Amino acid sequence: MQPEQMAKAELFVSNTLILKKPFKWQHPIMRRLAALLYVVENKSIDPEAIQQTNDLMKQHTKRFSAFRGPSSFHFAAMLSLTTDQLARLQHTIQVHDLLKEIKFRNSDYLVMAAYQIAAQGQPEQFQHTVKRAKLFYDRMKKEHPFLTGHDDYIFTAMLALSDLELDTAITHMEQLYRELKPHFSAKNSVQTLTQILVIGDGGSEVSERLLALSEAFRSKNHRMDKTYTLPSLALFALLPVEINLLVDQVVETYDWLRTQEGFGAWSINKQELLLFSSALTAIQHVESLQNEILTTSMSTTITNIIIAQQAAMTAAAAAAAATAVSSTQS
């Protein structure tokens, strides 16, 4: 691996191991996702800061609040990286209430969507952004009533935060969906993929590039067309980097991580490890390209997509955990 990529991977492993003892009751995927959040900021993990933020959340939310749900650890990690944690928490609660007022249903996905709006928007624009989110969601629900649900909330929020015109964006998403649907079995993830491509302003050849990426990974015996990893293909399709270079770097990162403590075959499955290998590769390229090819706006957009993808993964893991607990109690 290149030195910069190795540094990212080593920081990720170190952050993950640091969290193991103080947060041993947390699911391993939650610890890994929190560790990756700190890698995005080029920081070593701070368990004490996360715990302090978690305590702050408990002080300002009710006992059965969604902010204390299964994804609360990830939310606390996100908050711990901000300079004014109380203000960000209060703004997120405000946006969450606004979203519920217009009939978005409460879930871990909604908490994460509210955070996206609070983190990227301005307080005076919260109401407007929330209304735009509902417009985007309702249009997606009209086009795909059986695919559109809670798991679309996060990227719906990102669409609302963008400058995209509603009709144009929906038309573009539908075009991409028709082009890509025949090639992938995970239809719900294809919808997420189209949302990312539209947010990232993928050009006319983005579908062709995405399919070429999928085939290149497949040739290396690493399929990226599953639920966890398909959104990562969209991220790579947006990066102005040669396909074989991206694929080789993901594979190198994957192979190295497999040899590390806590990342063996008994600890983490292949699709999840590919997700983290892809994220580390994407983060490195955003940093190296932001002063060359990528504009500041585009690099910020891609970074936000990486963070949103992590949030979506956290909410999905939280939902799965809740379902598992429910099934054991019934």
Number of helices: 15
Q: What does the radius of gyration come to?
A: 19 Å
Would you identify the regions where 5 or more consecutive residues have pLDDT less than 50? 324-330
Structural class by secondary-structure content: mainly alpha
The separation of the N and C termini measures 48 Å
Domain count: the total is: 1
In short:
This protein is an all-alpha fold. It has one domain (3-317).
How would you portray this structure in words?
With 330 residues, the chain is an all-alpha fold. It has one domain. It is built from 15 helices and no strands. The C terminus is likely disordered. Helix 5 crosses helix 6. The chain is globular.
Summarize the helices and strands and which ones pair or pack.
Elements lengths: L2 H18 L7 H13 L6 H14 L11 H9 L4 H17 L6 H13 L5 H18 L9 H9 L4 H15 L6 H13 L6 H14 L10 H9 L4 H16 L11 H20 L6 H34 L1
Output the keywords.
single chain, 330 residues, mainly alpha, 15 helices, disordered C terminus
